[in-house]
Design a protein that fits this description.
By secondary structure, the chain is an alpha/beta fold. Helices cover about 40% and strands about 15% of the residues. Helix 1 links the parallel strand 1 and strand 2.
């Protein structure tokens, strides 16, 4: 099977690239070649997907059994891909986001038929618009689209906490110093965090599947954790106890409006993902990396090189500012 990944070396996609090669896929990566990520066995096409003429020349007479675009975010990106790839692939996989699901949720059990609506986050609304354009292209012209919606997904190089961390060590450093960290809400809402290695099993299993064309899927772990458990798992991996302060999500957003999307538009309420559909289409799919194990791998990666244990002063300042406002209010 011959597959093209547009991107393919990011947080989620690197695991899928490596698994695809491991399973014997003839994998091609189209990117600008700026990430220092090795995918042994993959072939590279160096081009900038934002320049369609350059890409058209670079891909020449190639055709693929499946193309996955990891870095499409707007309907304009989809229009470009339809123009470039119609007739060149038997399946086009769009990486959307589980944040497209209706906010607030009317039911905490999320299936692929849960309505798509997110008034809080432009990123999610753009992803919805992309999905709608692909649905129309499939219905009107047979463009072979499959939609995949990851939720909060991490790998060994990022710490998946919503306030004050991602590719840096800031929140873990706070925990180690006994400084307070913020957990939105009362810490009891339920969430699912998925390791990229687990997500890859579902994604790669869909590649080249005729029955997956025209279908949407989310791919997540089945593990349910409260946000308190998530933060305490990070702290335990660091060998400490987290000093948690619970603050209402809407209060946090008033103090720091940039968090509106990721909180009110995604993580503020419980979400329980029903993975029955991906398990039907990819028999044997199961996530096997519980968060308490995966986050130990992540912290081990950070702590293997002091240069990775980067502290971002602006993130500390934001956390302290929100805490000060909260203490003043009460």
């Amino acid at each position: 099977m011959k597959v093209l990944f547009i991107g393919g070396t990011g947080v989620i996609s690197t695991s899928s690239s490596r698994l695809a090669v491991e399973r014997g896929v003839e994998l091609w990566l189209l990117n600008r070649g700026r990430r220092d990520v090795a995918i042994p066995g993959a072939r590279t096409i160096t081009a900038d997907i934002s320049k369609p003429a350059e890409v058209a020349q670079a891909i020449g007479g190639h055709a693929w059994d499946a193309v996955v675009n990891w870095i499409a975010f707007t309907p304009a990106d989809i229009e470009r891909d339809i123009g470039l790839l119609a007739g060149r692939t038997r399946q086009y996989v769009f990486i959307s986001s589980a944040s497209v699901y209706q906010k607030p949720l009317r039911c905490p059990i999320v299936t692929e038929s849960t309505p798509l609506c997110n008034p809080f986050w432009e990123y999610s609304r753009n992803k919805i618009a992309c999905e709608e354009r692909l649905t129309r292209a499939y219905r009107e012209g047979g463009f072979p689209a499959t939609v995949v919606r990851p939720s909060l997904t991490y790998n060994d190089t990022n710490i998946p906490l919503p306030i004050g961390s991602w590719t840096d060590y800031t929140v873990v450093d706070r925990m180690k110093r006994g400084r307070p960290v913020i957990v939105h809400g009362d810490g009891t809402s339920l969430w699912t965090i998925t390791h990229a290695d687990d997500f890859a099993k579902g994604l790669v299993g869909l590649l080249g599947s005729p029955s997956a064309v025209g279908e949407p899927f989310h791919i997540t772990s089945d593990e349910l954790l409260t946000w308190d458990q998530i933060y305490q798992s990070v702290a335990a991996a660091a060998g400490v106890e987290a000093n948690i302060v619970h603050i209402a999500s809407d209060f946090i957003v008033r103090c720091e409006p940039s968090l509106q999307g990721t909180l009110l538009g995604d993580k503020a309420v419980s979400a329980i993902f029903d993975n029955s559909k991906i398990k039907r289409f990819v028999p044997g799919y199961v996530a096997t990396i519980p968060f308490h194990q995966g986050i130990r791998r992540t912290l081990a990666w950070f702590e293997a090189d002091p240069a990775r244990m980067r502290i971002v002063d602006s993130k500390n300042e934001t956390i302290d500012r929100i805490l000060a406002a909260y203490q003043k209010a009460f």
